[in-house]
Amino acid sequence: MAARQVLGLFRTADNAALATDRLKEAGFSAGDYQVLTGTPYPEGAFGEDPPKHRLFAFPFFGAAVGLAIAILITAGTQISYPLVTGGKPILAIPAMAVIAYEGTMLGAIIMTIIGIIFESRLPRPIMGLYDTRITEGFIGIALTCSEDRLQAADLVMRQAGADDVKNDDI
Amino acid sequence: MQDQLIIGANTQEVDAKINRDLLGHIIAPSPQWFWPLIGFLALVVAMAAGAAGFMINQGIGVTGLHRPVMWGFFITNFVFWVGISHAGVMLSAILRLAQAEWRRPATRAAEIVTVFSLMTAVLMPILHTGRPWRVLYWAFPYDFARGIWPNVRSPLVWDPSAINTYLTSSILFVYIALIPDFAVLRDRSTGIRHMIYSVLALGWRGYPRQWRLQMIAGILLSALILPVFVSVHSIVSWDFAVAQSVEGWHSTIFAPYFVIGAVHSGVSAVVTVLIILRYMFNWGDYITRDTLDSLARLLVVVATAWFYFFATEVLFGLFTLETPEIGLRTMQIFQWPFAMLFLIFITTAYFIPVPMWLFRNVRRSFKWMLITTILVNIGMWLERFLIVVPGLARKSPLTFNWSTYHPSVIEILIVVGTFAFVSMMILLFSKVAPLIPIYDVKEGQILRDTIKIGKVEVPAVRREE
Amino acid sequence: MWFEWPGTPLVTDLLAVIFLSILGLALLWVASIPDLAARRDHDRTMPRWAVRLTMDWRGTDRQWKVLRGALMLMGALYFLFLVYVHTIIAADFAMALVPGWKDAILPTYHALSGLQSAFASTVVATFLLYKFGGFKGFISVDQFWSAGKIMFALSLLWAYFWMSGFMIYWYGRQPVEQNILRYLMFEAYIVPFVISVVFTFLVPFLVLLWTFARRSVLGPAIVGFSILFGTLFDRIRLYVASFSAGENTESLEALHPEPLSQVLPAVMPGVPDVMMVVGGISGAIFLYMLATKLIPAVSIWEITEGMLYRTRRTFLKRTIMVMGKPE
């Protein structure tokens, strides 16, 4: 049976929270649905589990790469054309430290950005079932279920106070 | 201090109203004054570009730069715009880490001011070299054929690495925070715009994982950008401080002094920009007197810290009573025309604005905050000028090198052009993306609450532990 | 024998420190009036002079308003004055033509280092109260967590101020400045220097970088002890070293363009020196403990006020903390 998608739109957060309870009672598991909001709600506001992510590994990796590249560039260029300037040694540690510091931070920040985009499961060319009213303040509950449970899901959401329910029949 | 409560029957109505107000002329037609103003600013920028072109064609001699004053308006302007760029991190990063609710309307404008002023700052030393196409191999290690590499022991080479790091980080930071707002724009637009915003929004849907990562992004990136921001202006200050032969420059306090001066002028500039935007786009509900009050209090603290560093720099140079230092300070403070500039600088940068900001009525008045913050930036521009030029003017090892500095029309045009450029870019940006972060304001509304203590309803904020 | 009135900073030093102490005691007293009054109401054995300190406090609206205004004003004044006092004391040194001291950043560096170690000593005191003072119910991880964040920032600032000073000296290759660096940091006084870098910067940075360490009681406490230890050695390095070099013209000559062999050896402390340092620290701890006999170590009225403004409520499907922001 093919997986189908249903999207219920709720005007208030209370209705949406109620709907998640009703869906659980109706036998759907938490992994079947996602709450779509146009605003960040406090974590767990709709009963979802905290997301597991490995974002914090990215800055460390980026910092290491940035540091390596910076040291490579500064040391490499000075060794290949050793010209004493200002009486300072060819490999002047404080000077290299400044550029190494900038390189480290740049690497960390760029990898953090990549990490955030990646861990957010973006970019996503095929968005899935969505409604533009979500960014107008409506709260969406996007449910994935099998064909035969489609009607049940629709009914549960409408009974919980959904303003609109649509599915992926175009 | 909290954001204004946006009135609506429920969250959905509030969100819809916020969308309407803050998306403003991105989806609706622009106000009548918009394009003529852009046209005027573009004209000024074009004149500045023409002046720059003329200078490149005719040589640096058309400017007022002359031995021994080899650094003048361009370098002053460079330091000034790098200074202004520090506002973004101060307001966005530090206030985010301090969990200050009142930062919400101000962060995007601050970050945009940062990005564009940093771009302008980068232009200044490039123009100053007179032959910009020759400067790039000297800053970036790319010229394989000549075998000549950048001298990494020079602060002038640390500058590009620091400024580019800060610029890249700021642009990426702004972009990441813009993704949910691009999603709002994607949902509200049609045709080509819809396509462009869809691409920019990367397919954002708004489920908890994505929002969670946005929140973490804000905090993590703020923590990472803060050290960069401190290092950038320190490195710019070291352009001056590591010099041996210019009086008044070889001082260990330059790094923190420049950084705090940057924060002072930057935050003032952002306040100026916010007030102007408020009137231009009717954002009275979002940029409120409370926001202004909080910003003004922050400014008092920052300005006083700046004054402490300024006083330390001057007094600890002077007390040892060494002749060169006395000579420099005498010239800077008592000799015409520097005397007049010094007087204007010290009154406009500190002694007029800060005592005024101690009064609640002034802090909550848009007119007076606009005036005082513009005064601050006039003073801070002059401060940079007074650091750069008098010290150099006193370098006269040979009698035929006696010279004072007179800025030429070219330099004045280019400096004025930078102000026009930054203003124009901010306005053009407002046509493309919201200058007040939409989801931040919406989140602020959700997190509002009240606590009843006796008869009083105290405003409160919901906080995750 | 007027100590070159009013020119020398030594006189200003004394006046500044006296005034700061008076201000600090005043702040302590005013902040503890409600707690002393609470004790007065429940403790019949409270001495008469202590009862007089409560200034007839009854907790009326007006009294609270005045108290809050006074604390805000005095607090701001105290902080500003603290920075000023540190600057003035360090100015004693910075204004001298003694190598290593004639440094515009020294006062600011000293003020920051003072702030950092003051924070550290507060954290250490809080930790000792938590562990041995029986205050486990009133002091929680939150206090250490917030203090840890601030100590992290201050430690980074310490490194930054050090780097600002170092870069200027290192870059120019002036022989005097190079010798100063060798003397104060890399050769003669390398041991105190390494100790201060490790304990004032590296340990705080590497420990407080990790969330689990920041968000604990032990992490910030260890960092507090570390900072205090490092700062002691930093002070020894800065003030003993430079002055002993400047004491006679011979050694002053040594810090002028001369070969490396002329850099002076370090001054080692004698038994009286060590006893003075230990005695000073013990004296401070003693005064602190004495004060806690009179004034509660944890402010009762501030905790109860804080409880008024915090509550937990359900929000949709979770409980969330609500914090009042009276303004």
Task: Kindly list the characteristics that best describe this protein.
heterotrimer, B: 465 residues, mainly alpha, Formate dehydrogenase/DMSO reductase fold, two-stranded antiparallel sheet, 2 strands, C: 327 residues, two-stranded antiparallel ribbon, 12 helices
Topology:
The complex is a heterotrimer of chains A (170), B (465) and C (327).
Chain A: E1 3-10, H1 13-25, E2 33-36, H2 57-80, H3 93-119, E3 139-146, H4 150-159, E4 164-167
Antiparallel strand pairs in A: 1-3, 1-4, 2-3
Helix pairs in contact in A: 2-3
Chain B: H1 11-27, H2 34-58, H3 73-84, H4 86-97, H5 107-128, H6 136-139, H7 155-188, H8 191-201, H9 208-241, H10 254-281, H11 289-318, H12 323-334, H13 338-351, H14 353-357, H15 360-363, H16 366-393, H17 409-430, H18 438-446, E1 448-453, E2 456-463
Antiparallel strand pairs in B: 1-2
Chain C: H1 9-42, H2 48-53, H3 61-94, H4 106-132, H5 141-171, H6 175-186, H7 190-208, H8 211-214, H9 218-246, H10 249-254, H11 271-294, H12 300-308, E1 310-315, E2 318-324
Summed up, what is this model?
The complex is a heterotrimer of chains A (170), B (465) and C (327). With 170 residues, chain A is of the alpha+beta class.
Could you characterize the architecture of this molecule?
The complex is a heterotrimer of chains A (170), B (465) and C (327). Chain A has two domains: 1-39 and 138-170, Alpha-Beta Plaits, CATH 3.30.70; 57-119, no CATH class. Chain A is of the alpha+beta class. Chain A contains four helices and four strands; from the N terminus they run E-H-E-H-H-E-H-E. In chain A, helix 2 runs antiparallel to helix 3 (93-119). Chain B has one domain: Formate dehydrogenase/DMSO reductase domain (Formate dehydrogenase/DMSO reductase fold, Up-down Bundle). Chain B is 69% helix and 3% strand. Chain B has 18 helices and two strands. In chain B, helix 3 packs across helix 16, helix 4 crosses helix 10 and helix 7 packs antiparallel against helix 9 (208-241). The longest helix of chain B has 34 residues, at 155-188. Helices cover 72% and strands 4% of the residues of chain C. Chain C has helices at 9-42, 48-53, 61-94, 106-132, 141-171, 175-186, 190-208, 211-214, 218-246, 249-254, 271-294, 300-308; strands at 310-315, 318-324. The N and C termini of chain C lie far apart (53 Å). The interface between A and B is large, with 68 and 67 residues.
